[in-house]
Amino acid sequence: MKNLIFLTLTLLMTFSINAQGFIGAWEGTHTTDSGQEIKTVVIFSSKYQVTTQYDAKTGEFVMTNGGTWELAGDTMTETIEFDTKNPERVGTEVSFKVFIKDSIMGIVGSEQKLKRIDDGSPGKLQGAWLMSGRIRNGKTQQRDTNRPRKTMKILSGSRFQWIAYNTETKQFMATCGGSYTTVDGKYTENLEFFSRDNAKVGLQLQFDYKLVDGKWHHSGLSSKGDPIYEIWSQRE
After folding, report:
1. Which pTM value belongs to this model?
2. For residue 109, what is the domain's CATH number?
3. pLDDT at 163 > cutoff 60
4. Residues 55-81 pLDDT 10s
5. I need a labelling partner for 149 at 20 to 30 A (CA). Which of 65, 81, 111, 157 fits?
6. Domain residues for 186?
7. Is residue 150 part of a domain?
8. By C-alpha distance, which of 81, 84, 43, 33 is closest to 63?
C-alpha cells in the first residue's frame, strides 16, 4: 500500500511539473510558399493560452485563437473561446499530443517547433486577466466578467496580448500584443501587432499600474492618445 501511495504521489508530481513547464511564452517562425516570414507566439498561463501569428517583418496580423487548456500525460486539451480563422470551433474541444525538450516545445507530428521566450518571469503581471471596470470622471463603472463579451489580457513574464471577443456569437473584435516590462510602477508595452491598425506596430505605450485588492489598475494614454483608466481582475 505504501508503495502504491508513493507511486501515485510521484505520478501526480510528474504531471504537475510537466504542466508547469508550459507556462510562459514561446515563439517560432516559418516561411510560407509565397516567401512571407510568419512569426508564431504562444502564451500560457496556468489555465489559459493564446496562439497568434503575424508577419515577422511588418507585424501584419494573420490569426489568433485561444481559450482554456489542461494537460493529461502528454495530451493537451484546449477549449476554444476565440478563433479568427475558424470561428465555428468556438466552444469545442481539441486534443493533441505535445512535448517539451529543454527549451523547445511542439505538437507531436507537426514540423514547427517553438522556442521558449520566458517561464512566466520577470514581469509582475503574469497570468490571465479580464477587464472588469473603468474609472471615468472619477466614477467607477463595473463590468460583469461572466458575460459572453469579454476582453482578456494574457501575460507571460515578458509578452502580452489582449483579445476582445464574444463566446456566444463567436465574434472576434480585435487583438493587440507584443512585449512588456513592469518597472517602478510603470507598465510599458511595445506593440508588435494590432489587428485593427497595423500603423500602430512599433509604438511604445507606458502606463501607471498598481495592484489594489488583487485587481490590476491600469492608467495612461491609449494608442489613440485618449486617457484611460482600466481595472482588470485575474481570471480563475
Report:
1. 0.91
2. 2.40.128.490
3. yes
4. 999 999 999 999 999 999 999 999 999
5. 157
6. 127-234
7. yes
8. 84
pLDDT surpassing 90 at residue 134: yes
Categorize the per-residue pLDDT at 18 as very low, low, confident or very high, splitting at 50, 70 and 90.
low
Q: Measure the N-to-C terminal CA separation of the chain; round to a whole number of Å.
A: 36
Residues 132 and 91 in one domain: no
Contact status, residue 50 vs residue 193, Cβ threshold 8 Å: no
For residue 25, which of 46, 7, 42, 5 has the smallest C-alpha distance? 42
How far is 163 from 152, CA to CA, in rounded Å? 5
CB-CB neighbours of 131 under 10 Å: 19
pLDDT at 188: 98
Peptide bond into 87 cis (omega under 30): no
**From start to end of 102-212, where are the E strands?**
104-107, 113-118, 127-136, 139-142, 149-155, 159-166, 171-183, 186-194, 204-212
Judge whether residue 13 has pLDDT over 90.
no
DSSP three-state, residue 7: helix
